[in-house]
Amino acid sequence: MKKITGIVMTLLALFTLAACGGGSDKTADSSSNTKSEDQLAAIKKAGVLKVATSADYAPFEFHTMVDGKDKIVGADIDLVNAIAKELGVKAEVSDMSFNTVLASLKEGKSDIAISAISATKERKEQFNFTDNYYNPPQVLIINKKNQDKFTSVDALKDKNVGAQKGSIQEDIVKTQLKDSKLVSIEKVPNMVIEVNSGSLDAMVVEKTIAESYVEQNPDLMIANIDLKASDDEAFAIALPKGSDQFQTELNKIIKKLSDEGKIDEFVKQNHELAEKSAKE
């Protein structure tokens, strides 16, 4: 009788554990399904596309006064607004330091990151990226008083060369200006000030950006030094890892806008706007 009772108790215990285990699996499945909810559907449901950027990189993203109010504008901002319109939602842009733009994706604070970002191999390991939407040449900004001195990469040996912290320009300094001293700075305008003052000998920046800052600062110029261009330096939109369906949809929209000439138009219009803002 004790044996029978013991067997019954054991069976009851196993049944109870199995029941508990089944409940646990359902909870896990539910959690997994929630996490894997399609990002595109979630954005459309919310009606908002949350965008992370670093608005210090005219003409792609910068601040200007519109109707007496400070506003974030730029080619990248026009692009995300066009994307949001295609998706039937509104773009909500947040300004932050460039080296925290991608971190905001990991933390779930933004849906996309757009800030003249290059899809490097290292970044692709952690994020999804759209197709490239703009491939800019890279240049060096120097003070005009050094134009006869800084005429080659070798001339910048042991010199302080600035690049925005967390940007592709840091890699350009490391690989193409190996004998120079890399100085990483969070904001591009701060680098411009330092080149003006002489605490930086030069800075690496995308050509369209350089043209805007040179226009605003008559003591500066683009150095007559060629830097090698690469597809790795082209701009793309960053997405959270695994956003495959969203990535496909964005690629379709980017191709459409590119085929229509809209992206080049955004860059041109905002280059003009940045120059106008600098003169006001």
TrEMBL record:
Residue ranges of domain Solute-binding protein family 3/N-terminal in the record: 48-274
Signal sequence interval, chain numbering: 1-18
Gene3D superfamilies for this protein: Periplasmic binding protein-like II
Residue intervals of the Ionotropic glutamate receptor C-terminal domain: 48-271
MF terms in GO: ligand-gated monoatomic ion channel activity
Organism superkingdom: Bacteria
InterPro entries given in the database record: Iontro_rcpt_C, Solute-binding_3/MltF_N
Gene Ontology terms: cellular component: membrane
Keyword list, A-Z: Signal
Any Pfam family: SBP_bac_3
Name this polypeptide is given: Solute-binding protein family 3/N-terminal domain-containing protein
Organism ancestry: Bacteria, Bacillati, Bacillota, Bacilli, Lactobacillales
